[in-house]
Inverse folding.
């Protein structure tokens, strides 16, 4: 992207590209602060998918007619956009999936036959369930042992404990790049270096990081990296499994069917080359095209401009909520992402969210698919505000005002 011309960061121009931001909720302007769960879509993404469906849709890779060729070209262009965005060595390292969850399950299932009883998988207590349950499958079915790394007082990963946990039976370290609850950013480069020195595989859940951090797979040197499209202003139903070539080739295919084969006979089957051997069946064609459009749109901005904007929004929110008595924020590391999880003494997070909605403010409330973390923090749930490219300081003010009203009603 170094040779491209970047757009100026103008918040009103950006907001105008998101049709849904014109909505009102309960008579109030929509303030969408649920971006860590799923972000809204710009017109560039909506149009790319709709135009493909209207003018050139066909199945990919399997036809010689014009529509098939055009659709295949767009689908593979999307793969190229992902490769460039991640600075992956080759398009063969990019596997399209239904989402990050499927990507992690592909890796877990592919490793299953190599896991022996007593082999260890290292996780942290801040992981999303998507990066926990597949490893529990290996615990249940293969006898793997899950080793949990706890956190510092600020909500950072205990790196000393992680280093001490790596031993001769460690097979895999599976960690989030950025916590969906705490906003904590883990030092993936250091973690992968520790793992590489010990001959241990690494899988990084990048669902939150992909939209906030500069990603470079060659520099990070992890074996696997996964993310979903819908947090990157793209559609649902599409995600990416990046893997180093040797790591992907070592995986037994997760599913069998069309496209993932080279030859099939009554007696035997041979598998296709990467990445297709891990993409069985008709893929999410329109969704992949939508993801490519989202990445192309997102990449027209300088990441440092986006980061500065989101950091300023978080700082404004942090200052505003500091005056609310009884409000506690979870995750206070210095370099955290723009995610604010909090509780209010005397108020349930669900009630906070419902009251905020009355004023047009969309928050998330619950355990955020992170029950081990909730247990570790000794809470059942938190409320969460998460900021994105289209949010404004005025919206932060609306959020703080809604919280103050919730406090008066509930406490």
């Amino acid at each position: 992207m170094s040779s491209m011309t970047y757009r100026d960061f103008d918040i009103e121009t950006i907001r105008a590209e998101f049709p849904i931001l014109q909505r009102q909720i309960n008579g109030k302007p929509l303030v969408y602060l649920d971006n860590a769960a799923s972000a809204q879509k710009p017109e560039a993404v909506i149009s790319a998918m709709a135009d493909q469906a209207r003018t050139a849709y066909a199945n990919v890779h399997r036809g010689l007619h014009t529509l098939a060729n055009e659709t295949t070209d767009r689908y593979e262009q999307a793969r190229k956009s992902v490769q460039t965005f991640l600075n992956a060595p080759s398009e063969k390292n990019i596997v399209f999936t239904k989402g990050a969850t499927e990507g992690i399950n592909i890796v877990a299932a592919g490793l299953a036959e190599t896991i022996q009883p007593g082999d260890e998988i290292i996780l942290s207590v801040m992981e999303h369930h998507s990066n926990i349950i597949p490893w529990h499958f290996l615990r249940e079915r293969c006898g793997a042992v899950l080793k949990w790394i706890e956190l510092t007082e600020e909500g950072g990963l205990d790196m000393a404990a992680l280093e001490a946990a790596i031993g001769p039976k460690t097979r895999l370290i599976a960690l989030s790049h950025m916590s969906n609850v705490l906003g904590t950013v883990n030092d993936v480069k250091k973690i992968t270096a520790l793992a590489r020195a010990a001959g241990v595989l690494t899988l990084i859940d990048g669902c939150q990081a992909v939209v906030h951090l500069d990603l470079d797979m060659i520099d990070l040197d992890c074996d696997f990296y996964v993310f979903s499209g819908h947090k990157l202003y793209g559609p649902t139903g599409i995600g990416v499994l990046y893997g180093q070539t040797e790591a992907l080739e070592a995986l037994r295919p997760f599913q069998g069917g069309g496209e993932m084969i080279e030859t099939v006979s009554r007696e035997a089957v041979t598998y296709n080359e990467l990445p297709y051997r891990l993409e069985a069946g008709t893929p999410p064609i329109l969704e992949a095209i939508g993801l490519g459009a989202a990445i192309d749109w997102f990449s027209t901005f300088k990441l440092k401009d986006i980061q500065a904007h989101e950091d300023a929004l978080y700082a404004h929110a942090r200052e505003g909520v500091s005056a609310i008595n009884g409000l506690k924020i979870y995750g206070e590391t210095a370099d955290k992402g723009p995610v604010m999880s909090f509780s209010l003494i005397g108020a349930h997070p669900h009630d906070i969210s419902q009251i905020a909605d009355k004023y047009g403010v969309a928050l998330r409330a619950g355990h955020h698919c992170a029950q081990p973390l909730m247990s570790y923090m000794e809470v059942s749930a938190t409320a969460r505000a998460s900021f994105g490219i289209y949010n404004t300081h005025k919206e932060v003010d609306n959020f703080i005002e809604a919280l103050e009203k919730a406090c008066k009603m509930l406490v």
In short: The first helix runs from residue 11 to 16. The domain at 47-298 is CATH 3.40.640.10 (Aspartate Aminotransferase; domain 2). The CA atoms of residues 184 and 336 lie 5 Å apart. The longest strand covers residues 170-176.
